[in-house]
Design a protein that fits this description.
The chain is an alpha+beta fold. It has three domains: 1-249, Uridine Diphospho-n-acetylenolpyruvylglucosamine Reductase, domain 3 (2-Layer Sandwich), CATH 3.30.465; 252-361, Alpha-Beta Plaits; 364-475, 2-Layer Sandwich (Alpha-Beta Plaits), CATH 3.30.70. It is built from 20 helices and 21 strands. The strands form five sheets. Strands 14, 15, 16, 17, 18, 19, 20 and 21 form an eight-stranded antiparallel β-sheet that branches. A five-stranded antiparallel β-sheet has the order 5-6-12-8-9. A four-stranded mixed β-sheet has the order 1-2-4-3, with helices on one face. A hairpin with a 5-residue loop joins strand 8 (158-164) and strand 9. The protein binds flavin-adenine dinucleotide (FAD). Flavin-adenine dinucleotide (FAD) binds at residues 30-31, 65-73, 76-77, 86, 105, 127-129, 133-134, 136-138, 140-141, 143-145, 233-234, 238-239, 358-359, 452-453, 489. Residues 30-31, 65-73, 76-77, 86, 105, 127-129, 133-134, 136-138, 140-141, 143-145, 233-234, 238-239, 358-359, 452-453, 489 line the site of flavin-adenine dinucleotide.
Length: 500
């Protein structure tokens, strides 16, 4: 008689194995609308546990999906097979160096932030979910946040990765080209002759989490194989630890909160503000402002139809003062300055309002009518953002949809959610149709369909139209190098042979 998988796994692994109904219910959801119950959840205690579990699952042809905090917005960490949770045991800081950290994947970003702050350091990518999300999830989604504008996304900080492949073997992959891992040599052989195609087919945007980031792996700076795992959503292997670059916290900051009469007048000023090199340029629309004011009537937004958050930072106070004054002069007559602050407590308080945006938006849920996040993360060149936003709003108006818009406008990265009744076939068909239409527009003007939230279950099917068949066929070959039997997080990124 065959022994059940959970009993076998209990025998093989030191970590916890959960297969009771309650645990499987808990792990059946993330921050998306999908619900998929795993057959078993494993919580490994170390890399050796991960290797043993992978080896066993490989022998049984059983897919594995890694999981951090489950805050992914597109169903990335959901699976009906084995889910591997890193938050329980593999959640430690291994080392903090002068300019790098080495961490386990289940470490919560907010905990890392607090440790680094004591040393005057920081890891810049700052998702609004940073109080919960893990470094493993951030690498796998190539997460970013408000300060990506000047510092970059997680991929830009990834130096080295320890990865366990589907068969239980391990590779240490770093950016110094010295990796002995045969898979990296195969990857280099595959990509080297394609460098020009790759560089010409990728969007020239500040942030991108769509597909595999081949443009960051091979370019005129060289070969950075560790970056193939950023944005890969755990589809190439399980991340057991990672080294990331860290920076010194800038000595001075200044944050302005600007009120505009409406969304389009605010977005119209984005190119002007970018001239002064802010480290962050963010936006909230009228609906989100109203939801915030409902909770906190003291909030001073001066009846604004739209808010922009503009931060300057650096080590020379004179530079920040100069930029702030020039920016205020340039904006004269275009908006009201609601707040202009240099002290940390005011700056933190103002940023909290921006960070809480998605939580506010979810309050618009009424029964089966929800703010739906399929087209919620497009990026276009910020100089084209005004025209693109006009197109987006007109599409909503033409289709009589209520909506919210917010996001990282300095990067040209709009988060937007129309309100849809998910039980209505005509409304779900409509959102699919609109998504394809909006994505075609974004791709046509050289943007990306996802800047930071990733593809997951919701958007993977749009990857071929994003990059074209030639690049997609390279993605398939990349997948075959790392995961030839398609066992790593099926149903995400590559849709062939997938068993979600
Ligand atoms: C309220 C809210 C606000 C958000 N704001 C932002 C934002 O500002 N910017 C942003 O970029 N994102 C944002 N997100 C999205 C999300 O929080 C981030 O993508 C986050 O980094 C995901 O981390 P996680 O630990 O929750 O990962 P999970 O959702 O658990 O997993 C994400 C992906 O990582 C993979 N994974 C996790 N660990 C491993 C591992 N060890 N090995 C292999 N694969 C692994 C999973 O399989 C999955 O594919 C937000 C989400 C919410 C709910």
């Amino acid at each position: 008689m065959e022994i059940p998988i959970d009993d076998e796994l209990k025998r093989i692994a030191k970590g916890e194995i959960l297969s009771d109904t309650w645990s499987r219910e808990i792990y059946s959801v993330d921050a998306s609308n999908y619900i998929i119950k795993p057959s078993v959840v494993v919580c490994p205690v170390d890399k050796y546990d991960v290797e043993k579990i992978c080896k066993y699952c490989f022998s049984k042809n059983m897919p594995i999906t890694g999981r951090g905090a489950g805050t992914g917005l597109l169903g990335q960490s959901l699976s009906s097979n084995v889910v591997m949770d890193f938050t329980k045991y593999m959640n430690k800081i291994i080392e903090i160096g002068d300019d790098y950290i080495e961490v386990q994947p289940g470490l919560v970003k907010g905990i890392l932030d607090r440790e680094l702050k004591k040393r005057g350091k920081f890891l810049p990518p700052d998702p609004a979910s940073s109080n919960y999300c893990t470094i493993g999830g951030m690498i796998a989604n190539n997460s970013s946040g408000a300060h990506c504008l000047s510092y970059g996304s997680t991929i830009d900080f990834l130096q080295e990765i320890c990865i366990v492949y589907s068969d239980g073997t391990t590779g240490i992959i770093s950016g110094n080209n010295k990796s002995e891992d045969p898979k990296m040599k195969t990857l280099l052989r595959l990509l080297s002759p394609l460098i020009h195609i790759i560089q010409s087919r990728y969007p020239k945007v500040n942030k991108n989490s769509c597909g595999y980031r081949l443009d960051a792996v091979i370019n005129d700076k060289g070969f950075s194989p560790q970056k193939i795992f950023a944005a890969s959503e755990g589809t190439l292997g399980i991340l057991a630890s990672a080294k990331l670059k860290i920076l010194d916290i800038p000595l001075h900051r200044h944050l302005m909160l600007l009120g505009f009469k409406n969304l389009l007048s605010a977005i119209n000023t984005v190119p002007l503000i970018l001239q002064y090199s802010p480290v962050a340029l963010e936006m909230l629309d009228h609906t989100i402002i109203s939801l915030g004011e409902r909770d906190n009537p003291q909030q001073l937004t001066k009846n604004s139809g739209c808010l922009l958050f503009v931060e300057f930072a650096g080590d020379r106070i004179e530079d920040i003062d100069r930029k702030t004054h020039l920016c205020k002069d340039g904006l004269s007559g275009k908006c009201s300055i609601i707040e202009s602050a240099s002290d940390e407590s005011t700056i933190t308080k103002i940023w909290e309002a921006r960070k809480g945006a998605l939580n506010q938006i979810m309050k618009l849920t009424y029964g089966t009518r929800k703010p739906i996040g399929l087209i919620e993360d497009t990026v276009v060149n910020p100089y084209l953002l005004h025209a693109y936003t006009q197109y987006l709003l007109q599409t909503y108006i033409d289709n009589k949809l209520e909506y919210v818009v917010y996001g990282h406008v300095g990067d040209g990265n709009l988060h937007t959610r129309p309100l849809i009744d998910i039980d209505s076939k005509s409304e779900t068909d409509l959102i699919e149709r609109i998504a394809q239409q909006i994505f075609n527009r974004v791709i046509g003007i050289g943007g990306t369909i996802t800047g930071e939230h990733g593809d997951g279950l919701g958007r993977s099917k749009y990857i071929p139209s994003m990059y074209g068949n030639e690049i997609y066929s390279i993605f398939l070959r990349v997948k075959e190098i790392f995961d030839p039997t398609f066992l790593m997080n099926p149903g995400k990124k590559i849709l062939l042979n997938s068993r979600v």
